[in-house]
Amino acid sequence: MKSVSEQFQALRDRQQCALIPFVTAGDPDLATTAIALKTLDRNGADFLELGVPYSDPLADGPVIQAAATRALQQGTTLDDVLELVKTVSPELQAPIILFTYYNPILNRGIDTFFKDIAAAGAKGLVVPDLPLEEVSGVLESATQHGIEVILLVAPTSPKERIQAIAEKSQGFIYLVSVTGVTGIRTEIQSRVKELLEELHSLTDKPIAVGFGVSQADQAAQLRTWGADGVVVGSAFVKRLANTDDPQAGLADLEAFCQELGKAVKGT
Amino acid sequence: MRPDPLGRFGQFGGKYVPETLMPALAELEEAYYRYRDTEDFKTELDGLLRDYVGRATPLYFAERLTAHYARPDGSGPQIYLKREDLNHTGAHKINNALGQVLLAKRMGKARVIAETGAGQHGVATATVCARFGIKCVIYMGVQDMERQALNVFRMRLMGAEVSPVTAGTGTLKDATSEAIRDWVTNVETTHYILGSVAGPHPYPMMVRDFHAIIGQETRSQCVEKWNGLPDILMACVGGGSNAMGLFHDFIGDTSIRMIGVEAEGEGVLSGKHAATLTQGRVGVLHGAMSYLLQDSNGQVQEAHSISAGLDYPGVGPEHSYLKEIGRAEYYSVTDQQALDALQLVSQLEGIIPALETAHAFAYLETLCPQLSGNPRIVINCSGRGDKDVQTVAKALGNLS
Fold first, then answer.
1. Total structural domains in chain A?
2. Tell me: domain B56-90+212-396, CATH 3.40.50.1100, correct?
3. Residue of B21, B284, B299 lying closest to A106 (CB–CB)
4. With contacts defined as CB-CB under 8 Å, which chain A residues touch B286?
5. Are B8-50+93-207 and B56-90+212-396 in the same CATH fold?
6. Chain B stretch 160-179, residues whose beta carbon is closer than 8 A to a beta carbon of chain A
7. What span, in angstroms and rounded, lies between the C-alpha atoms of B346 and A132?
């Protein structure tokens, strides 16, 4: 499996925009998550963002919060998630990016955490409550174990901060498209276009846009605005959760992934 | 100088929040430093603390409580109460709410949000928002809304919107998470009046500073009464704002013992408690590194206490620091011990303390027999118990 940077380079060489679906590990159960990852991988996903369920997900809206709560009620632990990554990653072409809050990292021990996720086969990491000022404490371990740590830029970030974040972020830069938490929005703020232009003028690193992206036309719009990647979370999580029948949820997920894949590739 | 420029008290504190909030925290810190020492800000705050809140609050000698803990020869600890319960709205919380609303006004924020557990901080925030005509939304867990129904009504009466939080156990932790999510979404128009010495920098510092008047007044009142200092300071600790308010001015007076009392709920062994400093491990919650009640996987655990204001799995980072350097001591008492103390203080002094405050009183049972001579103890009587009478009645059955 390629590193996050290598995968983005390969996409750039083909002048393609990346589709980055997000699912919460353990919702509705770990077996379904495993099938979901493989399904997404086969149907247009270029990276897979996997959420580690957490008790207090401050940056998440109701859909992903509820998914995390259900996953925790199922007894899903970080060990389970890493076991899942270990099992499925050899079958995937898309690099796995873990999404976790900071406390579970701290609890495991920073170096142990990076060693373990690297051994499981994860390639990248997003920690929504670890901003630029706090991230330096993890970068050394991350580099040592070959994990790329992706930093977030928000619509509220001033220019000097954006520049500093862009310099430190590894793999790509995660541009948060809304002033708010994750979730489904009906349209993308036109401000995102300006932010993308500003970011591109400051850095050569790829930029992926997420938070609030839930439809194919939004994904296509982001591609035309210059995004190198599009992250879609709640809309996938909802499809997996919104059914009593996991098979139907997976079928829905597959169709939606194909639709989004076409939109970001412009085909 | 604590905290350092990154908001650290030793290893504790910091800013563990989504990027969206980082500029707002910087703006708040900048505004706080810019305004706090200006004549205009100080005059307005001091005037309101005096004429609206009713400061200074008295330092009251609790004669019968002192007699209760006296040795057979009549000697024993001398117990004084810093009467924060006599503040407008019935607790110390208004000191901070007032300071922050004056900042919000100067920062041009048209909307204020807050979290509340016992409802005292929510009431204080609703009060100052009414006073300044600012739109106010209070996040409160559904369980707390039930056990603090009187405070819910008070907030609504003053025009605040009380927004029920059903996530988790519907208590203070969940209300705080929801308030932070609101702030992430509305950060450009909204100021978040965080109610304890918790959360990301600059809150632990700023909230402490707005409550530091408690210790400052205590110092001059001690000088006035006996021309000396207290020997022991004692306060309950949930997030820890009333304790920091009392302690802060005395931290350099190293001969003074500082004791924080946490909620042990149904007992440490039951697993149903809120004894963060005495039972927790270092972690990150609501933007700060501090002691935290968490399971072996680093998931935040639910706290339990009969007192809604102490029912919190985290604690302010400066308390973690004071514990680590050995400057302050932290102990815990159970729901039952707090209930017993609440009745004792009611009957001996004619003061019904809040259930939170009752935890500090309860530790007298352990502390007094350990002391020799006649040390002077100042207890922060942080709030009054009117809001708790229903909870207490339910716990005690009908008094006859």
1. 1
2. yes
3. B284
4. 56, 58
5. yes
6. 167-168, 173, 177
7. 51
**B81, B62 contact by CB (below 8 A):** yes
- Give B25-76 pLDDT, tens digit per residue: 999 999 999 999 999 999 999 999 999 999 999 999 999 999 999 999 999 9
Residues facing B8 on adjacent strands: B13
- The reply to whether residue A54 touches residue B180, judged by beta carbons under 8 angstroms, is no
The DSSP secondary structure of B76-105, one letter per residue, reads --EEEEE-GGGSTTSBTTHHHHHHHHHHHH
DSSP line for A36-86: HHHHHHHTT-SSEEEEPP-S--TT--HHHHHHHHHHHHTT--HHHHHHHHH
Give the β-pairing of B135-141 and B59-61.
unpaired
Is residue B77 a contact partner of residue B368, using CB atoms and an 8 Å limit?
Answer: yes
Q: What per-residue confidence (pLDDT) applies to B240? A: 97
B320 given a catalytic annotation? no
C-beta atoms of A134 and B16 within 8 A: yes
Q: Name the residue ranges covered by the structural domains of chain B.
A: 8-50+93-207, 56-90+212-396
- Could you tell me the CATH number of the domain that includes residue A122? 3.20.20.70
**What number of residues does chain B have?**
400
* CATH class for the domain made up of B8-50+93-207: alpha beta
Question: What span, in angstroms and rounded, lies between the C-alpha atoms of A36 and B28?
Answer: 43
Query: Mean pLDDT of all residues in chain A?
Result: 95
Instruction: Write out the H or E segment, with its range, that includes residue B261.
Output: strand B257-263
CB atoms within 10 A of CB B333: 25
User: In the annotation, is A60 catalytic?
Assistant: yes
Residue B22 contacts A where some CB pair is shorter than 8 Å? yes
Average pLDDT, chain B: 96
Distance CA B192, CA B115 (A): 9
Structural domain containing residue A261? 4-265
Which residues on chain B are in Cβ contact (under 8 Å) with A59? 18, 184
Query: What ipTM does this complex have?
Result: 0.95
B177-193 residue pLDDT tens: 999 999 999 999 999 99
- ω into B3 cis (within 30 of 0): yes
**With pLDDT > 90 as the criterion, what percentage of chain B qualifies?**
93
Which positions of chain A have pLDDT values less than 70? 242-243
Q: In whole angstroms, give the CA distance from residue A90 to residue A120.
A: 10
